[in-house]
Amino acid sequence: MTPGRRSSTFTRLLRHGFTDPSAAEGLLDGPELAAVRDDPVLLEALGATADPDLALHGLVRLLEAQPGPTAHRELLDTLIAAKPLRDRLLGVLGASAALADHLARHPGDWHALVTYEPHDLHPGVTEFEQGLATATDPVSLRVAYRRCLLSIAARDVCGTTDVAETAAELADLATATLRTALSLAERAAPEDAAACRLAVIAMGKCGGHELNYVSDVDVIFVAEPTEGTPEHKALRSATKLASHLMRICSETTVEGSIWPVDANLRPEGRNGPLVRTLSSHLAYYQRWAKTWEFQALLKARPVAGDPALGEAYVDALEPLVWKAADRDNFVPDVQKMRRRVVENIPAAEIERELKLGPGGLRDVEFAVQLLQLVHGRTDPALRSGTTLDALQALAAGGYVGREDAARLDEAYRFLRSMEHRIQLYRLRRTHLVPESEPDQRRIGRSLGLRTDPVGELNREWKRHTTVVRRLHEKLFYRPLLDAVAQLAPGEARLSAVAARERLIALGYADPAAALRHLEALASGVTRKAAIQRTLLPVLLGWFADSADPDAGLLNFRKVSDALGKTPWYLRLLRDEGAAAENLARVLSAGRLAPDLLMRAPEAVALLGDGDGGGLEPRRRAALEQEIMAAVGRAENAAQGVTAARGVRRRELFRTAAADIVASYGTEASAAEADQGALVDRVGAAVSDLTAATLAGTLRAVVRDGWGDTLPTRFAIIGMGRFGGHELGYGSDADVLFVHEPQDGVDEHEASAAANKVVAEMRRLLQLPSSDPPLLIDADLRPEGKSGPLVRTLKSYEAYYRRWSLVWESQALLRAEPVAGDEELGRRFVELVDPLRYPRQGLTEDAVREIRRLKARMESERLPRGADPRLHTKLGPGGLSDVEWTVQLLQLRHGRHVPALRTTRTRQALSAAREAGLLSAEDREILDEAWVLATRVRNAVMLVRGRAGDTFPTEPRELAAVGRYLGYGAGHAGDMLDAYRRTTRRARTVVDELFYAD
Which letter, b or e, does each residue of 871-901 get, where b requires 16 or more Cβ atoms within 10 Å of its Cβ? Predict the structure, then answer.
């Protein structure tokens, strides 16, 4: 070949899409193609394939495999003369290395692509059964199967059939294959065949008439005895036939395998019998089946074996399928199953997962099936097992917006086409988009993307997954808005009955009220209504993910009514990614956070990502600075304390919102796994806020009554959970008040001033207002309620020296100055240290007294009728058990173990472990129980809006507590079991450490 001709051919090959022109020239110049090397038709046809290099290589292999010169010439002549064959054969060779291998092994099978009659364009089960009729064993069945598959692939790559038609043909071929395999199994065991009636029910994509090139074929087997055969013998025979059928299809032979037959969707999965009678199937589904099993039955279709039995199976189970949406937690169960699928994808693969990843095929299928199960009860037109047919029916009935349905249809077709091309190449079961550029180039070209195959493929793929990701949940909610807003006259929309069905399925207890709220929020042509129509489909999904969707929607309407005309509010929700989701979580998690927000709705700005300060708790110094500044601007004490309480309300909301969001998790981040960290954050934030509020209130009262200087130095000592930095949302502020007269001031005057300060602080912090009150509890003072509210430091010293009881030493373990004169607070701590960390430890009498007090408290204070095992404070293994055990260790060993001298329970537990006073296992058990009990108390306050020490009894409130603690819908019982189990273990440790001598 002359250099000029070589250069010209090389350029032509590049122009026709060859990536290795040198190798292609060698093949074209070889003996197999010598006769047609210069025929322009061949080069044009090769250039039209997905991978011209692959097609040319496959063609040469096929020609080399021909049995003689006559067959070789026949193939070449037909290839050049018959465009249908040329397009089909080269199209397959350019898309599938696996089918090229098949043709090389069976060189006569190219004849299957020659015919081009109308009946050949869309074959069905009958035609495929004819194509498999020559099979007499598993090997010949595989050869015949691939010959049929060759014709399906040819029609697919040439565009004769679209992706839905191709998937239907693949399902029909699978049906014919299952029938042939069953026939082979029956021929091999005629006695078994005579003993039973066996029906094969296709499930999954085969049942839905939308199979992939390479996929497990999901089936369920049902059998009945023939007349005169005992049931157990018939089932044994049917099981043998079913097992043989599965082996015929699944086992690897010299011709490979066809596909695995998977029967794991049967009742009890792989643990259940392979074959059941119809009555056994029915009994299982009536009593034991889970929601996902009814979802799977949507696609059940008899395909092989006894047709009457197959139809009887479908007829018997179909009514149960359409009652599935009536089950408790139906929608959450389905959505949880979808989330679980995503969570199980390896992190390295999730971005390449075409089927299971976010925005993938499964998102479309789940959304469609969910809507079918909700509305198919009353509308038989929706009862199709085929995803695209069902989507079209949903749009026609107004259950899905037509535009949304059209975009999902387009995305689903594109993603399924990608999936088909990926699997066709090697005929391997995979849903991962390959990473290599040559593979992506072949896929892109096979889909008609020729200018920049790799770039265009990735752009289209991402575009369609983005559409699916954005629409798949909105698909469920947007029609609810269309039903009430009525902005598109003439378009089919949800009927009132259908809207009610959908809301009930979402968990709304009062669908009529929910529709009224939606109408108020979404109707009209204002900018506010337009933005809310955009937001609501997503918000409704988040509300549905909570235990109380009704409250979430009602609260959103209240906030919207209060702030809807405020430009920054709508902008915040529209533009700041986290704000809308955070708001939805907060509004539907219980009463406390929404109540705090409703009193000053502008606090919604805290939920955003930007200048609102976010949900990170503020440090005490910053809180005090803001409160002191507000007090300084106030005209009197009442105004100053009002300002301080306003800051407290806002910061309580910030803390609660951050706690809820961290406990629930968001789409961008998982729920916080460290429960102890959540407890510590809330405890520190609420305690710091309480201290700052008391400091500001003290400043306001002193300034209003005495100017800059009070006649006596004054300090507030935090006690109990306050001193331990462990306050919850519903905790009072346990304190002691201590004062010391200024130099030259009469003690009576100083005492009167101190008492007046305390009285005024308590009054102003409890005044009825829009801000929650802060209750000050001084009952831990010397002599309790009978003793003076305020004492001088000398009076405390005299009392503790003469009269102090062991319970007071125990209470002082938590004493920490929180506000007022720092020097006085420090001296108070120096005064009480010898009491709480006695030099000689505790006497045996003191230990017995502590145990006696604990026993009396448990018996006397536990509310009548309360279940002790579920009482977070006084129940076995609860807060009191853990705290008294820790405090006993502190009283006994605090003098000699400096790390034990802390007011914080968890720190003291860790210090005791480090000092060898308890084992690592015991420390972990006690810590887990204490954290869990604290979380439950916080949850009860968040959910009910009022403090409580026991789990709520109202189902929705109990479910909301469970959701906060990480339990999904329908798992409140698991939560209670886990609580009992955790506290039971803790009580065992308490018995050993607290009560044992």
Answer: bbbbbbbbbbbbbbbbbbbbbbbbbebeebb
Secondary-structure breakdown of the chain: helix, strand, coil percentages, each rounded to the nearest 5: 65, 5, 30
Q: What is the pLDDT of residues 275-291, one digit of tens each?
A: 999 999 999 999 999 98
Structure-block tokens of residue 582:
């955070």
pLDDT digits (tens, 9 = 90+) for 59-114: 999 999 999 999 999 999 999 999 989 999 999 999 999 999 999 999 999 999 98
C-alpha to C-alpha distance for 577 and 608, rounded to whole angstroms = 8
Q: Are strands 196-202 and 217-225 parallel, antiparallel or unpaired?
A: antiparallel
Integer Cα distance of 465 and 901 in angstroms = 57
Q: Please give the C-alpha separations between residue 355 and each of 294, 366, 658, 931, in angstroms, as whole numbers.
A: 21, 12, 34, 40
| Residues across the chain | 997
Residue 712's DSSP bridge partners are: 741
CB neighbours of 183 closer than 8 A, spacing ≥ 6? none
Task: In whole angstroms, give the CA distance from residue 981 to residue 706.
Answer: 56
Q: Where are the alpha helices (DSSP H) in 707-769?
A: 720-723, 747-766
What span, in angstroms and rounded, lies between the C-alpha atoms of 809 and 815?
Answer: 10
Pair of tokens at residue 340? 């679980």
Q: Which residues contact 915 (CB under 8 A, 6 or more apart)?
A: 893, 897, 899, 900
The answer to whether residues 935 and 678 touch, using CB atoms and an 8 Å cutoff, is yes
Q: What is the pLDDT of residues 183-213, one digit of tens each?
A: 999 999 999 999 999 999 999 999 999 999 9
Angle of helix 453-471 relative to helix 402-426, nearest 10 degrees, comes to 130
**Alpha-helix residue ranges (DSSP H) falling in 589-674:** 592-598, 620-633, 637-664
pTM recorded for the entire structure: 0.77
